[in-house]
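Shipment paperwork, digital attachment
Item: protein structure file
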Amino acid sequence: MEKYFWSEPIHFTAFPIAKPGYGVIGASAFATAIFALIGFAGLSFLGLMVTFFICWFFRDPDRVVPTQEGAVVSPADGKVIIHEIVNENPFIKGPCLKISIFMSVFNVHVNRIPHEGKISRVVYNPGKFFSANLDKASLDNEQNAIILETEEGKKICFIQIAGLIARRILCRIQEGDELLRGQRFGMICFGSRLDLFLPPDTRSEISIGDKVQAGTSILGYLI
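Attachment content:
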């Protein structure tokens, strides 16, 4: 049995870039070209550096996804900042294992589905823009919550949360979609956070401070 699989077709390029970045990259490159034509060497160099950074920020590498039964993979790249049992949350009744992943501007920001299943709800809430590593960000910031139900009837909730710099949450899935573990479903632009709520009996494989990769790192196993 294979230990990994591709949840989506792979890119045929050495440096794949997420589609939401095309417009930003184009605008930055155009401004850089204008500065160069006018003869503003300093601004041209700065614009070139900014364009390279934006390309790097919107990178979208292909990821192999583990096939282990019941595995829950990370929905985001970043650092685990919360790992605890909570008694309640706004989207799933009863206690849950809460895992929060903080994404700095240096992480890949493409988000992926943590476990195969059917999307039962997608709930968007506008809000404020506190730093994503603060506890109140989970309650007050702009966010997009997705509730997924597995074939066995278990519910998983993952919430895209905007950060201090982030001003745009992107999500391309809808209620009723049936998705595979590791599939891309959206991204958050320029620094953010993702909260994941799992059944309380989930066998965890990570702890606070661990660095994880979307689609590849196993956070735990559903029992």
